[in-house]
Task: structure prediction
Amino acid sequence: MRTTYTNRNIDGIQYISQRDNSESQSGWVELYNNIRSTYKAQTASLNYALSRNRGNEYSWKAELNVNYTKQDDEYLMPNSVQNAENLSLGLGGKKNFVLGNSLNRRLLIDVHVAYNNNLGGEYVYGGSHADYPTVTELQQGLTNYYTCDYYRIGGSITYSQQVRENRRMNLFAKVVFDRVNTSDYDYDGRTHLSISLGCNF
Result:
């Protein structure tokens, strides 16, 4: 079992400086500074895994993942806020099949599912030019993305084998499928499919 927690706080500071070319002090002199924006983020995660070993490898593995994220960004004057809070749960499993001991031939199947529950969030812009695309499309679109409920299902199949006996070089072929689906904000689902071939040595 593994748990993690992070808490990040960043201030956006405005500096006003003036060039001083006098003989006693040549360079930039800071006249004034103040905090104009704050950026806060908290993340917490829990990962629990069970596996059954088979020699130097595992036969199967099961995982449970719980993730919590909270983002709270604020521009102080004129006041604007952008925040989001999410809780997600994921389950996954892997099975490592032995296809043959010669050339160490293996078939690894990985299946995972996850659900993200949005707990809240908003974007409130208090500055000028509120009708600009950077406000109505870029930043609002980003907030919509972070405040969606969605589910994800996917998996992969990987075949691998040694190039020759008594050599550590392995060839592999891998197919990965991933589907993310949501109906929030008129979004459509997204499907990802990839095929890769490679060599580990």
In short: The radius of gyration is 25 Å. Helices lie at 133-146. DSSP finds one helix and eight strands in the chain.
